[in-house]
Structures are given as structure tokens and as C-alpha cells.
Amino acid sequence: MDQEMAHRWLANTGDLIVEHIDEPDGRVRLYYLSTMADAKVVYNELIPKLRILQLEDASIAEVERQLGVASSNRVYGVQEAVSRMIQNCIYVHVQDAAYGLAIPSDGTAGRNIQAPEVESVVLGPQLAFVEELHVNLSIIRKYMPTTHLFHERLAVGKEIPIDVSLLYLENIVDPENVNTVRQRIQELNIDSQLDSSILAQYIADNERSLFPTLQITERPDRVVHGLRQGQVAIFVEGSPFALLGPTTLLQFFQSPDDYYLRWVLATFNRTMRMFAMILSLLLTPVYVAALTYHYEMVPADLLLSLAQSRSRVPFPPLWEAFLMEIIIELLREAGARLPTKVGQTIGIVGGIVIGQAIVQAGFTSNILIIIVALGALSSFIAPSYMIGSTIRVIRFPMILLAGLLGAMGIVIGFSFLASHLLRQTSLGRPYMYPLYPVRFEDWKDGFIRAPLSSLWQRFKFLNPQLKQRFNREQAQIKKDIDE
């Protein structure tokens, strides 16, 4: 590949660097992109090693031996050489040689490994994935040093291909799950920005559903746990989040911290999350339905307080509730989009000031402020940001149905919600497992978290090849040191 041909393939590329090792003939040249490759490798390693050779008579085999390059790094053709340079490689060209050499060298800026920000960690490893794919894969390899961990690299997009990696334990995972994920990714023909969350929408069973069917996580311990259970992990170059699938609705309310706590505490936390989800969906709709149609359901003492609180409110309960829910969502979105310090100020001060001003102006009642705040707080308890956002969106049609039809509207809303969830699948697996189909043996790691010694079976939902995680009888044996 001569210099003119390199510039023709990389037209309008101001960061193409060509180094002539043996001036003035330039029989051996180095080609690389200054924005992608590490220049220190060029000047501190490659050039000193090459100058030791008698370059006038050196063959490509001698150059390959001197640089210690594996045969897998041989490059044939200009197009392949340019492709490898774009992928952070330094291309070594020897005149009249049958092939060239691609030396891996990543000089791109990266982010240091830090503690998770979206999924906060109480107990467990204090590290999260980063945007570099090879770093994320090395983290998983560190936690799972086994030859059974398979890694498949796929490319999505023709004009601008993006690397996508599949990870799974080949002795545990159901091959059908791997084939489903692989087929859906390979069938993609897109030329847009690709991130883990975007890829999840493309390969989801029903992209029109509000409920996420693939788990998005930045925590390596969650991915390792999923792989050991038989799930498939998906990583995308440039994304600090991984995908796990297939998954169930209950898994979105489970946290890796549950396995670091004693089983009673973990069960209590999971129960609280389920209760919070129901509370977030029901609290405001029940208030609207009771004050609009069902005064007889409210105790007499509480009814008097409600009447006094709403005596100055000019709006019916439906519009009063909608007004407060929208204000809460505006404050939440503003706090999320603004810089961290300003966002915290907006969330705290804005909520207090605006809430107090609305009550004094007579636009809403004190009781509704409390109810809406409890409903919003309950939606934030979910460990997954995606499922928390879904609950907050569903609350609006539930409030509308309660305002139009009362208690019957709430029943109709829950009926439609249950019907929708029962029809959902994740990579072809039932989304509501173990509720539907009913599998009581998997409830011990669903609604509750049983003692670790009783979790000797893997999740049947995933149809793993190895059904047992360990021997149950041996795990329950307790012996003293002198026995």
C-alpha cells in the first residue's frame, strides 16, 4: 500500500500519519491514525526495533519475527489495512511483500472504572462498566476465569459497523436462547447510533410495549449472576451498559444486593418493592375514585378532613390529581437534566416551594400532596430505572380511568394491564414466569429470597443445561473442625 493509495482510501483524513523507516527509499512504512493509535508505541517500540534490521534486504517474515507479531495479525489488501487502522491498529507495510502487519494499539481516550451511578451499590463490588468494550469484557473475565465462558463478536451496520459481543456459559445456557439473540442481531440492517438501550428496543419481542423485556445494567455482579443462571449477556462498543436476557418482570424488582444480605432482610426488601409498585399504581387512582364516586367508602372522620382540605379547591379530583402528577414529573425531569448540584436544589427547594404555594393558592389539597409524593416515592424504589419509569407512565391512564369510571375503571385498567403482561415474552420466554406459567418451586428466588443453601437449582425459566448449581445435601451439612 503506497502513500497515494492510503490517502485515496482515507480521503479528507487529516489524522493519517505515514512514517518512513529507512529514508529516503521508504521501503518499510508505518501507517496509522493519530486520533486512534498510540504514538508512544510507534516511536518507543516499533521504530527502534525496525531500525535494528537491515531494512534494504529485510523480508516481511523477518519484520514479523522482530516485532513479535502473531500470524493472525497479517493483513491482505488495502481495504483490510484501512479497516484495521480505523480499529486502532498500526499498519506495517514492506514494499513488494505479500501481506502487511496490523499492530494493535489503542490510543483513544477512555474513562476510568468507577462506582455505579445509576444502580447504586450498598454491598458488593464498587465498580461499573465503561464505554470501552474490551475493558468490560476483561472485567467479566476477571470474575469468571473459566473456559466455558464463550465470547462471540458480531458487527451491526454496513456503512458504519459497530461491534456487539455475546457472552454466555456454553455448558449452562440454553442454545435456543443464544440462537435467538444471534439471529435477531444479525438480521439488523441499521445505520444509526447504536447503544445497549437502543439495541434492546430493536431485538425486543414487542417494541411497542412500555415494559422492558431485556435487563439493562451497569453492574458486573448482576451480569455474572445472570451468566451463571444461564442468561445471555450483550455488550455494545461505546456503551457502559450491558443487556441480559431472557428475563422476567420479577427480576426487574430484584437487586444484586439481595444476595449479599441475610435472607430475611433480602425477602423484606423484595416484599417492600412489590408493595411499593402496587402502592404507586393504586394510591392516586383510589383517591380520585373515592372522592368522585365512592364517598361511602371513606370513613366519616377522614371524610370530614378531606372536605375541609378541599373546600377551597376549584377543580374536581381528576384534574387536581393530574395537575400534581404533572408537576411532580416536571420536577423529576428537571432534576435529572440539570447539573448535579443544581438538580438537587431544584428537586428539594422546588418541591417544597411549589407545593406550599399551590396549597396556599387553593389549587390542591394537603392530602393530595401527601398521596402524590408517596406514589412518586414508591416508584423510585424499583432497582431498575426502566421499570420505575414504566410505573410512572402507567399511573396516568389509571388516574383517568378512576376519574371516569370510579372503582370499575381501576378494575378495568388492571385487567388490561394483566392481559398485556401475560401476553409478553422475553426472547420467546414467558415474561410473567413464575406466576404464569405457575412454578411454585421458583418462587423461592422470586417474590422472596430463600436461604442460599436452598437455591440449589437454577431458574427453570431459562431451561439451563445444568439444572443444579450445587449439591443440596452437602451444602446443608455443618461440621466442626474436630469432626
TrEMBL record:
Keywords, alphabetical: Membrane, Transmembrane, Transmembrane helix
Transmembrane segments: 275-295, 343-361, 367-387, 399-422
InterPro entries, alphabetized: Spore_Ger, UPF0353/GerABKA_families
Pfam families in UniProt: GerA (PF03323)
Keyword flag Transmembrane helix: yes
Family: Belongs to the GerABKA family.
Record-given protein name: Spore germination protein
Organism: Brevibacillus choshinensis
